[in-house]
Amino acid sequence: MTIAIRQIHKHFVGEVSGLDLRQPLTKEEAREIESAMDRYAVLVFHEVSIPRQSRGL
Question: Looking at residues 38-46, what average pLDDT do you find?
Fold first, then answer.
């Protein structure tokens, strides 16, 4: 799936779509997210499912 990051505020907010956080990020995806954090400071992720992981407690 291709990540899309679009500016949603004229100064500092980007919206991320096309990302499945249930799967490990590829190196390319991680670079894109990191670059977007540097550019926008705030990223919005809509409808993202993050799996609950066992902590062994």
Answer: 89
